[in-house]
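Q: What would this chain look like folded?
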Amino acid sequence: MKNRQLAQKLYIKTYGCQMNVYDSGRMADVLAPLGYTLADTPEGADMVILNTCHIREKAAEKVYSELGRLRRLKTAREKQDGRMILAVAGCVAQAESEEILDRAPFVDMVFGPQAYHRLPELLARLKRAGKAVLDTDFPPEPKFDYLPKDVPEPGAAGTSAFLTVQEGCDKFCTFCVVPYTRGAEYSRPAEDVIAEAARLVAAGVREVTLLGQNVNNYHGAEPAGTETWGLGRLIRELAETDGIERIRYTTSYPADMNDELIATHGEVPELMPFLHLPVQSGSDTVLKAMNRRHTADDYRRLAGRLRGARPDIGLSSDFIVGFPGETDADFAGTLGLVEEIGFVQAYSFKYSRRPGTPAAAMDAQVPETVKNERLEVLQDVLNAQQLAFNRSCVGRVLPVLLDRPGRKPGQLVGRSPYMQAVHVDDPIEGPGAIVRLVITAAHANSLKGVVEIREAGAGTIGERVTA
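A: My prediction, written as structure tokens:
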């Protein structure tokens, strides 16, 4: 008689970046053979995993607050003669390590982002030892080699999916914890990426977003194993995969944008004309203190080269205000760069100390009131640019990948090539279709469109409708 795993419920709460979303999916994959199926809420779950992110301010305290709420569910479950295994994963787990078990001794497992492929082993250790299990080592073997390859891919329930191609960081920006939590840079072999993309297509995916902490520094072994491919070469290969109609990638490091990748933007139509390219500051003094390997002028020239290769490309970026030592003149440099480049979207944050990073110990920490004032000014400019770009889309035809229902009956929502949410009433086709929409209205964070009536396949991205 064959052994059968008892059905058990698994709840995963994911914080932070897209790579964490991908990782959570793979955690579910490795636990599925043990009988775990995903639950929508932690209530009644046999195992709860908090997949954490350490980028945002007070990230660890938010995790401890959530653990306090989960402790009550765990205790209630035990009173009913049941058990809830409570685990903390991801970058906070890597950074806090044993402190989590000290502050929250009711937690059963703590493991970092390089250890989740060992989840079945960790559960076995927990059962044998009867006490909390900790695994925050960086393994010598790539975790991707040990993940299931015969299951539906994470995020593949819809039309878009993330696909991790590179992980880790060797740049050591002075404000960032990623090198300490994700480890050194590693690029997956191109053959593995291509095979995973094919499985995504088989699951109904039409758009893939290639993920990496420094994704444009991808240098994976090509299928023959004798050379390495850069990201541009990988994108060209993926664009030849039947069923992949859209390709994106994030997050990029300006100094790693090479000629091949820039040319790919102009030569591969499947690569969407939208690039998230974090600059962080417009001041060379601040950029040097951040250990960024570019200057403000380097970024300006790079933006010009990208627009030369793909004139309709939209740029997005990240900004940190109030970095230690930032003066009014430094901040004015950031505003000047923003005004000159023009961004279709952007993310901006106040600098906050990350324990263990060089910037946390720097002198001349900027007062909180000054950081708040600067952030408000910067966000006003960035929001105005985003709204202006959205309004410039009115009257244009944009191909929109429909992916979810809207709030109104018969309404669907999709994504434009520029990552804008686009609402359409009575779209004729359903989720998964790419429809050409005439944009009729623009708002701060979304667009509205109507289906264009014309021959299928005619026209180009963003052409303007004429009377």
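Residues 18 and 343 are 21 Å apart (CA to CA).
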